[in-house]
Amino acid sequence: MTPHPIKPSSFLPTNYRAFRLPSLLHFFQANRARFLSTILQRPHQLAATPMPVASASAAALRSSSGRHCGAGSGPSGGSRFLMMQRRDVVTKGIALTACSSLLASSNGGADAQAALERLPFKADGYSFWTWRGRRIHYVEQGSGQPIVLIHGFGASAFHWRYNIPELAKKYKVYAVDLLGFGWSEKALVEYDATIWMEQVSDFLREVVQSPSVLVGNSLGGFTTLFAATEVPELVRGIVLLNSAGQFGDPNAPPKVDEAEEEASALTRLVVKPIKVAFQKVVLGLLFWQAKQPARVEKVLKSVYKDPSNVDDYLITSITAPTADPNAGEVYYRLMSRFVANQTQYTLDKLLGKLSCPLLLLWGDLDPWVGPAKAAQIHKFYANSTVVNLQAGHCPHDEAPEQVNAALLQWLGSLEEETGDKPAEPSLQAV
Question: Which of 328, 319, 271 lies closest to 298, judged by CA?
């Protein structure tokens, strides 16, 4: 007779996650007779259960491939415990392994995702391109039609860690760090939407040198849309994942010109310097707080519906660039100038100039940019397709299997339209 699998409910109450280690050991000691009986009858089940790694180590960051959601291989199971001599050691050893196994089983499909290949983390980055005298970091893998991936605010090319290896099996994949972010130079320039549009446009001309599909998340989504309207001959299609940007408000009052605002001597000599000094102090404190690993983890978990992939790899890829001496000043310029002046280039203006196919891969559970924006974009731009995902603000990293599958399917249909390959099934919401 095939033995039944060990169920968490057989030993633990439904709120077992709240237990701390001493409580768990006490609990298992009190029930060790029942527990040992079950384990000794079915030791092979425990041996086959993976043991999760509590947190990624520095070695894991350098690994050529990573376990999705942090799952790893466990010890040899029941036979190992039978070799132990002291009964209390046996009980505690089994308890710890069983707890780890039970917690691993609650990860919501981690086993099915464990084989997903991950881009190796490199502390020194991958490739560099000099743009206007500045070092720009990018990753390049695969061969075929080019795809360019562009990250969101505060992220880098490493945010596409689970997408690059999969897409590179069929396409030439580039992931570029925008100026001021990631492993690209923290240049002390005036940051606005046009600088990243120009960077991506020149990257297509000088590095890719072929019409490409642009894929962008958040700020990167807005940048891809902007670039596609400026260099349409270099863009075959664009994909937006929970894109930044706003639709214009026809009822908004006209914006006061900055030159007029600074015309008076009082404003120019007194008010503005005081305002700048105050902003620098406040934003300096905010930057110090924002770059702390614990703060980064908290923010990420607030926008990832499933926080399984909020791990050391991801947190390090965000916090490491903040060690650059110019990072604080770049943060100040971004927050005080770019973020405060986003209304000049609205989504309706850019979509009105767009001429290529558009795919919207949208995490409907995003607390920042909900599905209403995707619906509005889809309604405004007829040549668009929407795929709704049960994910947060960064669906490509939170639900990479779903994003990869939907993106590959859409890319196949895009090539089919040009006669490059046979038609594939139509997209459906995931």
Answer: 319
| Residue 14 DSSP label | T
- pTM for this one? 0.69
Beta bridge partners of 172: 146
| CB neighbour class for 419 (10 Å; exposed up to 12, middle 13-18, buried from 19) | exposed
Q: What is the pLDDT of residues 288-312, one digit of tens each?
A: 677 899 999 999 999 999 999 999 9
pLDDT in tens, 354-389: 999 999 999 999 999 999 999 999 999 999 999 999
Residue 200 contacts residue 221 (beta carbons within 8 Å)? no
- Answer whether 189's CB lies under 8 Å from 213's CB: no
| Strand pairing category for 146-150 and 172-176 | parallel
Q: Which residues contact residue 256 at a Cβ distance below 8 angstroms, ignoring those fewer than 6 apart?
A: none
Question: Taking every pair of C-alpha atoms in the chain, what is the biggest distance, in angstroms?
Answer: 91
- What share of the chain has pLDDT > 90, as a percent? 55
pLDDT tens digits, residue range 404-420? 999 999 999 998 886 65
Of the candidates 420, 354, 281, 326, the residue with the CA atom closest to the CA atom of residue 134: 326
Burial 66-103 (b: 16+ CB within 10 A, else e): bbbbbbeebeebbeebeeeeeeeebbbebbebbbbbbe
- Interval 153-180 mean pLDDT: 98
| Nearest CA-CA partner of 156 in 394, 411, 326, 414 | 394
- pLDDT of 202 > 90? The answer is yes
* Nearest Cα to Cα of residue 177 among 169, 168, 186: 186
Q: Give the C-alpha separation, 407 to 153, whole Å.
A: 22
> If residue 227 lies in a helix (H) or strand (E), which one and from where to where?
helix 219-230
Q: What is the DSSP letter of 176?
A: E
Query: What does the DSSP 8-state code read for residue 289?
Result: H
136 in Cβ contact with 130 (< 8 Å): yes
Contact at 8 Å (CB) between 314 and 159?
Answer: yes
